[in-house]
Amino acid sequence: MPGIGQSGESPAPHPDSLGVIITMPPALAAELGSWRESFAGADDGIVPAHITLVSGRARSSWGEAAEHVRKVARQASPFTISLRGTGTFIPVSPVVFLNLEQGAGQCRELHKELLDGPVEHVLNFEFHPHLTMAHDLDAATMARAKAEMAGFEAELEVTSIGLYDYSQGGWALHEELTLGGEAQP
């Protein structure tokens, strides 16, 4: 697991860094990664394609917040997401994204349930489920991303959510949680 220290033990999670995301299946992640790299460039340190459910922190202890995330995952059911076409948050935020045609309601419900406990979402924007394709690039590249991805379509089955911790300079998977089940190693 990323973030393992030299002693072989994971560093303690930081209470001010807790994220919950939906990871893309490998083939779709590779395809989306190629597209994202074509917009931002190979040297831009592209974050793997994902759908953020929470970007936040623990209200009190990280362990208590993590247990809440586990409980939400155990009580949730797998669902389908359909990615169809593009949208943008411009001028509020310089983001071009893929729309969630199907599955947005389930993402909103998971977001709401995750925040109904010791987890806090720290972004200044209202939650809108999406998959970022281009972020904070020049206007021409943002327009190109929006146009080139407009016809994009894909479906994926969401069977788990990832619980992440920001440690040692980057987000690291703490555990993958099966929807309706137990944590995966």
Strand order in space, largest sheet: 5-2-1-8-9-10
CATH architecture: Alpha-Beta Complex
N-C termini distance: 9 Å
* β-strand amount: 35-45%
What is the helix fraction of residues, given as a range? Answer: 25-40%
Q: State the shape.
A: globular
Task: Kindly identify the CATH topology.
Answer: Cyclic Phosphodiesterase, Chain: A
Number of helices: 4
Low-confidence stretches: 1-9
- Give the overall average pLDDT: 87
Classification by helices and strands: alpha+beta
CATH superfamily: Cyclic phosphodiesterase
Radius of gyration using CA atoms only: 17 Å
The CATH class, by name, is: Alpha Beta
Q: Could you tell me the number of beta strands?
A: 10
Set out the fold topology:
Elements: E1 18-23, H1 26-40, E2 50-58, H2 62-75, E3 79-88, E4 95-102, H3 104-115, E5 119-121, E6 131-135, H4 139-148, E7 153-158, E8 160-167, E9 170-178, E10 183-184
Antiparallel strand pairs: 1-2, 1-8, 2-5, 3-4, 3-7, 4-6, 8-9, 9-10
Describe the structure.
InterPro entries: 2H_phosphoesterase_YjcG-like (IPR050580), Cyclic_Pdiesterase (IPR009097). Keywords: Ligase. This is 2'-5' RNA ligase. One of its GO terms (molecular function) is ligase activity. It holds the Pfam family 2_5_RNA_ligase2. The chain has a single domain (18-180), classed as Cyclic Phosphodiesterase, Chain: A (Alpha-Beta Complex), CATH 3.90.1140.10. A 6-stranded antiparallel β-sheet has the order 5-2-1-8-9-10. Strands 6-4-3-7 form a 4-stranded antiparallel β-sheet, with helices on both faces. The protein is an alpha+beta fold. It contains 4 helices and 10 strands. It is 28% helix and 36% strand. Strand 3 and strand 4 (95-102) form a beta hairpin. The chain has helices spanning 26-40, 62-75, 104-115, 139-148, and strands spanning 18-23, 50-58, 79-88, 95-102, 119-121, 131-135, 153-158, 160-167, 170-178, 183-184. The longest helix has 15 residues, at 26-40.
